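User: Quick sanity check before I run a bigger batch. Here is a single chain. Can you write out its predicted 3D structure?
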Amino acid sequence: MKTNKLYLALLLFNFILFAQIPTGYYNSATGTEFTLKTQLYNIINPHTTLIYGSGLWNLYQTSDVRPNGNVWDIYSNCDFIFGTVANGGNQDDGTLGTLECQRYNKEHTFPKSWFNGSAGIPMYSDAFHVMPSDKKYNGMRGNLAYATVSSSVTTTYGNGFKIGSCGAPNYPYALQVLEPADEFKGDFARNYFYMATCYENLIATWQTLDPNGDTVLDGSSDKVFEQWYLEMLYNWHIADPVSQKEINRNNAIYPVQGNRNPFIDHPEWVFTIWGSFLITNNFDLLDTISVYPNPVSDDRIEIQTNAVIEQIELVNLKGQLILKINKPQFQDNKYQINNLPKGFYFLRMSDGKQVATKKIVVN
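Assistant: Done. Predicted structure follows.
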């Protein structure tokens, strides 16, 4: 697909998302960076605290239903039936769950031990991060952080998730993590950006409540996440864009809980808020790269370097991924990108270990 067609498709996609938003809901969200985050906090923090039991069980029947009418859980492809066991359903009743597809229950995708949670507080039953899950796999996850596992981990479970040693870039310690199936990585990233925003008034106090949470949270109320984790979440957010499932879920939760996930409605706001922390460079790599011409005048740019570039990404100022090239072709001592749409962009180049970013203008 030509880049300009992809760009138009993304604009149309944003329009479709915007059309789902209640009129005036985000009228006060006018700022940038952490000012915008606080404005969003003021919009989404006041909301109804659901009953952890019946409130969520009932909501899931509209918010988390597969096209076939069964439960859409986050860890398996099981055909769970809504409702209690007495009524022919697979809802957790305190029995079974030692094998896949026996029972479904409720998973705090942002673990409750990370906020010292108990029933009755808003985040304990917040439907945006408490999602249906296979009971067996919920137990296996415990309170592990979501992250990318080491490439040596090959065993998969359920819908394709993995558990093993953390292999995320720039993570400096040994850590056991759960890597979700690719189709849920963006969902979970947007859950975490929601938590960082909706509970901005509390999240700075959560850092040391749980050792796993401590590896993820940085103890602030603005940036919230450690640098390695913020970069990983953003990459998941970009690689797995908002799906129709998420849009439907957002719209189902809103009339019941009374708030929305702004990063489903406006995925570009992730970059608007955290972008200054995401444009990071490894200067060893950056020093080897020349990008020209810049500004671009004929929709073509050349990248000259003696490094082996594994991936090139073009990201607009809203944080939307416009173009991604894996294993770009190296010819005549340069990499070349054609058919660039007009605008201002960040050109991100990675050699597999390091990332360099340059701002470019296409006239």
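The radius of gyration is 21 Å.

User: Great, the batch can go ahead then.
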